[in-house]
């Protein structure tokens, strides 16, 4: 295989993974595909970054390298055109083009930095060579993703009078870290628990959950364990898995036995407090999602127009923070790949003598 063929292979892979990255990003932002495609987007961008580093270091022909950079970036327009939100292809395409042009020039600067390290150092530090200036490229990539999110159909930036809805799957992902806090406050909480069951739990906690008349089986088991029902702390009782499961099962049974009138009464009380419709069969995640959307849309029209840009700016800073870990990871993996390519003789190490200009007395 000739050197030029190897360069074409590397360039083609760069373009392919660029297209994959934009495709997964489109499905994540515009089709609300959730966690799987978010992970696939991150993985494809990671591989794209590695290929940028390898191409910058190994591909000598500028025509191959720069065309690969350009095609991998211009693939963005295959998926993001602006027609989904009615803003128009030309206007939105211009915004995207400016950012993509900036990324292209950042890639050229990155390549020049790599070549400088490659040609001027007596011994190449691969990690530093790949890492230097790559942060600028990924900062601009983060800005492009935030811009695409700002113009996504879910934020509806062109119509401030339309109801704003957060992407539910993304909201569920952000809610996961709070699960531990919810469980510490509500020991009987299960992710699959319905709102009707939660309302029954609140009601029983207020009226006396562990009375012999209402819960004879639970009362008997607590006494068999040598615990005092009248003085024991409920949270300590619920630390026992057997008691916890028994109480949860009883809550489910009592919820089923409630009449439709009693259920509607429970829902109406909390629905009025929260200002949202409660169906009863939804989980806590769905209820919190409804509440978050309700609070966003209760903000006056004067401030509602700032919500999309606030969310987009927040996303940019989150992505920028993640890129602080991604860039060193790309440099490390690229260094390992170079070592592997040397071992399999895909690339070779050569020593060149260079003439240096020196000034001395």
Report on the structure:
By secondary structure, the protein is mainly alpha-helical. The chain contains 17 helices and no strands. It has helices spanning 3-29, 35-58, 62-74, 76-79, 89-120, 126-131, 134-150, 168-175, 179-185, 195-207, 216-224, 234-238, 241-257, 260-274, 284-298, 301-304, 307-343. Helix 7 (134-150) packs antiparallel against helix 17. The mean pLDDT is 78.
Topology diagram in text:
Blueprint lengths: L2 H27 L5 H24 L3 H13 L1 H4 L9 H32 L5 H6 L2 H17 L17 H8 L3 H7 L9 H13 L8 H9 L9 H5 L2 H17 L2 H15 L9 H15 L2 H4 L2 H37 L18
Helix pairs in contact: 1-2, 1-3, 2-5, 2-17, 3-5, 5-7, 7-17, 10-13
Structural class: mainly alpha
Helix segment count? 17
Cα Rg = 29 Å
What's the pLDDT, averaged over the residues?
A: 78
> How many β-strand stretches?
0
What oligomeric state is this?
Answer: single chain
Query: What proportion of the residues is helical, as a percent range?
Result: over 70%
Strand fraction band?
Answer: under 5%
For the biggest sheet, the summary is: none
Which residues form runs of ≥5 with pLDDT under 50?
A: none
Gross geometry: elongated
Distance between the termini: 51 Å
Give a brief outline of the structure.
The protein has helices at 3-29, 35-58, 62-74, 76-79, 89-120, 126-131, 134-150, 168-175, 179-185, 195-207, 216-224, 234-238, 241-257, 260-274, 284-298, 301-304, 307-343. It has 361 residues and is mainly α.
